[in-house]
Structures are given as structure tokens and as C-alpha cells.
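User: I'm putting together a small comparison set for a docking exercise, and I want a reference complex before I start. The sequence is below, and the ligand is flavin mononucleotide. Could you produce the 3D structure with the ligand included, as C-alpha cells?
Assistant: Of course. I'll restate your input first, then give the C-alpha cells for the complex.
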Amino acid sequence: MPPPPSFGAALPIKASPEVLRFLALRRSTSAVTLTEPAPEPNQLADLLRLAARVPDHGKLTPWRFIVLLGADKAAFAARLEAISSGRGDILQTGKLAKLKTPPLAVAVISTPKVAAIPEWEQVLSAGAVCSALVQAAIAMGFGANWITDWYSYDSQATTALGLETGERVAGFVLIGTPREPPLERERPSPPDLVTYWKP
Ligand SMILES: Cc1cc2nc3c(=O)[nH]c(=O)nc-3n(C[C@H](O)[C@H](O)[C@H](O)COP(=O)(O)O)c2cc1C
């Protein structure tokens, strides 16, 4: 990994067939097939640096990361289990395998600021962070998946995660080593989605 470029450094645009190939073939991995090893601490630091390198109108940094690792992630999952089973919600209790199985989860938190930049744009920037993190993890040779699930939307769960008023979960990015390669999914056909504006 190159070190972070210094502020104002020239960053020439160069064609990168390797990146095009990566984008053409990359695929998220089912979270329940993700196992050890997780990224090492220095790899995680690199991943977060790459994830934070996204378009951000007004340089507001309207997002932050909460890392859930190993026993701490297990303790968070146990809190979620207590929340859902306390309500007698067996279905939600059983839906935690995607969070519990992978060795690492990074919660990307949308933290919109009061600013001239519309909140919508700040939220979109948090989505870009999730996407960049998934892609960076895959490019580093790990499997990754962006999920939300009920605990991204449940106020007790987000309080347990440590969210402040006004913050929302953009996604849990689950990362680990895939036990099996992901299979291609159906993809939309871009021509079906495109119109050309005409005056
Ligand atoms: C905002 C968002 C939330 C998602 N939440 C879930 C989820 O809760 N559970 C799930 O199984 N998949 C969820 N997904 C879908 C997975 O990430 C899915 O694996 C992904 O769309 C596959 O994309 P890819 O094959 O292009 O990498 C979510 C996707 C997005 C964009």
C-alpha cells in the first residue's frame, strides 16, 4: 500500500486494467462463510484509510467507524440476543449468524452535520464509505459483505452499539476469509436502466 499522499500532491490519472478487471469480477461473500483469519491490525488500519477516502461534499466527514472484533463482537451479539429474546422475538434472535460468524465487523455510522450541505448528500457519502470498505477488503484478499439487518434500525440495539442522537447505521461491513468462493448473482442490464435526456 502506498502511504497516504500529502495534501496537494499531484495524483496523475492513469488507466488501470487491473482495477477494471477487479471491478468486473469482484463479488461480496456470504457473511456466514467468513472465517478466520481477519485482517491484521495494520491491514485494518489500511482498510479504514481507504474507506475514508471517498467523495464528501464540504469535507464534513459525516461518518465514523465502530470496530467489533473477536470477543467484543461476541459480547455485542449477546446484547442483541438479550434485546430480541427479552421481547420474545425468536426470529430476530436467530438472525444473528451473519454478525456472529465473521471474525470482524466494521459498523459504518452516518453522522450528518448541521451544515449547508444537504443531509441527503452526507448520508450518500456514508454509503460510499461502506462500498469502498467492501471493495478494499476484497482487493486485500478478504471476503466482505455489507449488511444492515434489524439491529441497524432498532433503537435499543443502536444504543448498545454506542450511537448518539442523530447518528444512524449505514451498514455493518463483515470481513473475514471466505471458506468458499462467492458465486455470481444476477445483475441488471445497464441498457435497461439508461435513458438519454433530450431537449
Ligand atoms: C444498504 C444495504 C443493506 C444491506 N443489508 C443486507 C442485510 O441486512 N442482509 C443481507 O443478507 N444482505 C444485505 N445487503 C445485500 C448484501 O450486501 C449483498 O450481499 C450485496 O448486495 C451483494 O452485492 P455484490 O454481489 O455486488 O457484491 C445489503 C445491501 C445494502 C446496499
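Residues 29-182 form a domain with the NADH Oxidase fold (CATH 3.40.109.10). The beta strands are 34-35, 63-69, 104-110, 143-147, 168-178.
User: Thanks, that's exactly what I needed.
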